[in-house]
């Protein structure tokens, strides 16, 4: 606290104004509120409650005074030294370097500065006294002083004040559990009245507005008019103050002011544009709901929306017309308002109505705001000083065309990034899901051994005989004829499809490789290049394998195709000598095998969504080419399976089943490789297309193949939502020691603790800002006044789209009643909130 005294002594010696009579006297200026705050906190830890109250109350009072004085000084100085009249005796001003006009301009600037400085100095003391650190400002924004105050008041038994302080603090800290407990406790105490729960920081314009809205919703129109009118008056006075307070010091915003070197006009521009930006943002500041980051959408215009309808209901048509016209200044295209105005005018008489104009104060406001925006956009375009228009009503052409185009591009980029992030999130989701699935692996082990569905099919080897888990070898899954037909299909397709027979194997230079997918085969069939019958057989047999595996592994949810490939590997005779490699190296199907580490990493680029794999063998007239399972080291072979026609080896696609294919040293080895997923989102797109293609072909298909894989049973989704906190909060019993209002949790008054707390608070604040937009929109919807249609759309039922057409309809109808502005607030509110609810449900699913 000595810091401040030091500054005072120093500055007083340098710049003596405000201190001329008693140079070292704090009373000459207002006591700085950060000093008072510190004193109060110090007193708190000493348990000196009276001192807490005295200092904290004064801190709050002085903060208010600083604010008021600054606004007042700037406003009244502006009044005294405005730039309005021309310089006397000079005639038409011709500005130029050092011209009289320039001089008189700067003369006014100097006078204004002098005016503001002496005005503030007189009332507050030297400006540096009230330079408050960001940390303390944050405490005041968070309304922390009221937390100290409520404890202190409680201790000296000033219950009504304690309640008001607690309530005030809680408004800005709705997540503060202790304070909520305290409030619950206070509520049950004898002698506490409902009226004690006051928000001491409430801003008059918002209070009036919310009260007006409350009455409006209750159809209490006459009193709601009073509150909305009060709100408008208070709004403009708050706006004036907010704007005046924007005329503060230049905010270097992080960069080193020592390196800032701008010439006179650039420096003035930089500062002035910053001020203008701040002034424009008063719209946001004023629309902010108490104790939250949420704002009322289109705040100022909405006042006149509420007002016009309230006046109408109070049968004051003059005022209803005035307010409609005022609203239309902001939104001239608003159909409903245009209709309302037409209705009011017709009711009152067109002549009379024509004489009523929109409110002057709003006309002035819009004119000024638009001019500001123009300057800001100019600075944006020319100097790159960003400006984001906070208003919804600004006509498009206020923003320069170039900027509009630039913003369009930026928006598109932003949309693309958002989409990419969305995809990334989906992938992460999938990974998490799969991880969860992994942990459920144990139950899968127990589950295998279900029916194989077909009498012919035999279980030749189980996990046990294959020395692992999630493994099976089935025989006679397809017949000799079917094997031959698919084998032929592969070779014909390879020849017809590619024009040459096979390609070098991607896995081994000693082999050729050819492959065809179901869709490719069907397309070739459609073109007559392969027998359509064979292509269909390929489709049907792969489906058979899928069903058998689903059943054998007793899966609770359907298995979906992820990829299907009919592949043949052929030995290149002249490349077999001294061959040591495998036909297909050891790998796992849904993770990246790192054999050196005995690890398998389930991350992209691995196909992490794969859950089961199967290979359907078509022949055995080749040498080598045995299928093998190994340990994670990719060396220790745990089981070997010899291919043969009609044999299927099926296995879990995870790290439990590293596998490979031994070198094919002679002949051609053909098989259908099938990968499956339990996640319908990863269903093979080709498969769906293939199905569609099959449906187009004339011959009827087995009905079960018509089942679309894109119609899965919706998976049950677990909700990770924690139970509401309220349920877990024990309600304190009155009089119990434990239930007394909690003191600040940081009982120890050491500085570190304090810093930590405010860090936490910062994180909280940031968190809040990141709230999903959907919620915000839903709230905004609710905040909108119920539509005040001149034409009731009785014809259409609900509200919503197409109001133009309906309006014309009703106009033609003679029924007078139907062209009344109506207010189906109840209906609409339910509609709006149920829409919002279902949106929320979607989010949670
Ligand atoms: C500005 O000056 C006029 C006339 O001198 C006065 O009526 C008005 O109250 C002044 N406004 C402020 C904010 O001082
Ligand atoms: C399983 O391991 C045993 C013992 O090592 C081995 O004899 C047997 O051949 C293995 N099973 C298969 C299918 O390879």
From TrEMBL:
It holds the Pfam family TPR_leprecan. Residues 718-727 have a biased composition (Polar residues). The keyword Kinase does not apply. One of its GO terms (molecular function) is iron ion binding. It is an enzyme of class 1 (oxidoreductase). The keyword Ligase does not apply. Transmembrane segments: none annotated. Keywords: Dioxygenase, Endoplasmic reticulum, Glycoprotein, Iron, Metal-binding, Oxidoreductase, Repeat, Signal, TPR repeat, Vitamin C. GO terms for biological process: collagen metabolic process. Its cofactor is L-ascorbate; Fe cation. Coiled coil: none annotated. Residues 564-678 form the Fe2OG dioxygenase domain. One of its GO terms (cellular component) is endoplasmic reticulum. Belongs to the leprecan family. This is procollagen-proline 3-dioxygenase.
């Amino acid at each position: 606290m000595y810091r401040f005294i030091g500054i005072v002594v120093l500055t007083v010696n340098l710049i003596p104004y405000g201190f001329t009579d008693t140079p070292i006297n704090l009373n000459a200026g207002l006591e700085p509120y950060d000093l008072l705050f510190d004193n109060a906190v110090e007193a708190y830890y000493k348990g000196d409650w009276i001192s807490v109250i005295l200092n904290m109350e004064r801190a709050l009072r002085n903060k208010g005074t600083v604010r008021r004085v600054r606004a007042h000084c700037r406003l009244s100085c502006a009044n005294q030294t405005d730039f309005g009249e021309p310089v006397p005796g000079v005639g038409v001003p011709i500005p130029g370097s050092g011209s009289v006009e320039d001089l008189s301009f700067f003369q006014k600037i100097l006078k204004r500065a002098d005016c503001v400085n002496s005005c503030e100095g007189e009332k507050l003391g030297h400006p540096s006294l009230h330079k408050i650190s960001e940390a303390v400002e944050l405490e005041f924004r968070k309304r922390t002083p009221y937390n100290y105050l409520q404890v202190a008041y409680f201790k000296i038994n000033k219950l009504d004040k304690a309640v008001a302080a607690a309530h005030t603090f809680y408004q800005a800290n709705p997540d503060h559990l202790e304070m909520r407990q305290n409030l619950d406790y206070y509520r049950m105490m004898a002698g506490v009245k409902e009226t004690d729960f006051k928000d001491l920081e409430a801003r008059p314009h918002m209070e009036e507005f919310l009260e007006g809205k409350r009455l409006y919703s209750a159809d209490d129109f006459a009193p709601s008019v009073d509150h909305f009118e009060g709100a408008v008056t208070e709004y403009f006075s708050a706006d004036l103050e907010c704007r005046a307070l924007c005329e503060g010091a230049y905010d270097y915003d992080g960069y080193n002011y020592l390196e800032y070197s701008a010439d006179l006009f650039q420096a003035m521009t930089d500062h002035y544009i910053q001020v203008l930006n701040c002034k424009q943002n008063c719209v946001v500041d004023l629309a902010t709901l108490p104790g939250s980051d949420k704002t009322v959408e289109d705040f100022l215009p909405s006042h006149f929306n509420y007002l016009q309808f309230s006046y109408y209901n109070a049968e004051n048509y003059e005022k209803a017309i005035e307010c409609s016209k005022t609203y239309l200044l902001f939104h001239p295209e608003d159909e409903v308002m245009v209709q309302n105005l037409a209705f009011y005018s017709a009711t009152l008489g067109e002549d009379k109505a024509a004489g009523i104009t929109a409110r002057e104060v709003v006309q002035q406001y819009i004119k000024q705001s638009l001019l500001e925006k123009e300057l800001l956009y100019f600075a944006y375009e020319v100097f790159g000083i960003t400006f984001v228009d906070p208003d919804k009503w600004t006509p498009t052409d206020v923003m320069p065309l170039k900027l509009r185009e630039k913003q369009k591009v930026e928006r598109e980029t932003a949309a693309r990034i958002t989409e990419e992030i969305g995809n990334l999130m989906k992938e992460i989701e999938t990974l998490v899901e799969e991880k969860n699935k992994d942990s459920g692996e144990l139950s899968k082990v127990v589950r295998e051994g279900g029916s194989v569905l077909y009498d012919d099919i035999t279980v030749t080897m189980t996990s046990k005989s294959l020395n692992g888990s999630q493994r099976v070898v089935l025989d006679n899954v397809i017949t000799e004829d079917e094997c031959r037909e698919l084998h032929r299909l592969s070779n014909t397709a390879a020849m017809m499809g590619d024009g040459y027979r096979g390609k070098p194997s991607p896995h081994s230079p000693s082999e050729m490789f050819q492959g065809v997918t179901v869709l490719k085969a069907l397309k070739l069939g459609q073109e007559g290049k392969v027998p359509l019958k064979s292509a269909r057989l390929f489709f049907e047999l792969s489906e058979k394998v899928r069903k058998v595996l689903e059943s054998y592994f007793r899966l609770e949810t359907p298995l979906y195709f992820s990829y299907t490939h009919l592949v043949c590997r052929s030995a290149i005779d002249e490349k077999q000598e001294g061959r040591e490699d495998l036909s297909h190296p050891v790998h796992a199907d849904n993770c990246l095998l790192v054999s050196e580490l005995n690890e398998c990493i389930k991350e992209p680029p691995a196909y992490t969504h794969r859950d089961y794999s199967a290979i359907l063998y078509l022949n055995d007239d080749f040498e080598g080419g045995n299928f093998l399972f190994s340990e994670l080291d990719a060396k220790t072979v745990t089981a070997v399976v010899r291919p043969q026609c009609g044999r299927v080896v099926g296995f879990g696609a995870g790290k439990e089943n590293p596998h490979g294919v031994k070198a094919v040293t002679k002949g051609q080895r053909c098989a259908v490789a099938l990968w499956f997923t339990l996640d319908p989102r990863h269903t093979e797109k080709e498969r769906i297309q293939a199905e569609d293609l099959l449906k187009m072909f004339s011959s009827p298909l087995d009905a079960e193949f018509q089942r679309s894989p894109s119609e899965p049973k919706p998976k049950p989704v677990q909700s990770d939502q924690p139970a509401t906190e309220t349920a877990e909060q024990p309600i304190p019993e009155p009089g119990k020691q434990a239930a007394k209002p909690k003191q600040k949790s940081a009982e120890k008054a050491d500085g570190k603790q304090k810093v930590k707390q405010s860090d936490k608070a910062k994180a909280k604040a940031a968190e809040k800002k990141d709230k999903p937009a959907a919620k915000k929109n839903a709230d905004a919807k609710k905040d909108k006044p119920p539509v005040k249609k001149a034409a009731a759309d009785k014809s259409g039922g609900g509200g919503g789209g197409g109001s133009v057409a309906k309006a014309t309809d009703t106009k033609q109808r003679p029924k007078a009643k139907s062209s009344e502005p109506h207010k189906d607030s109840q209906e609409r509110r339910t509609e709006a909130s149920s829409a919002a609810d279902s949106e929320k449900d979607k989010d949670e699913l």
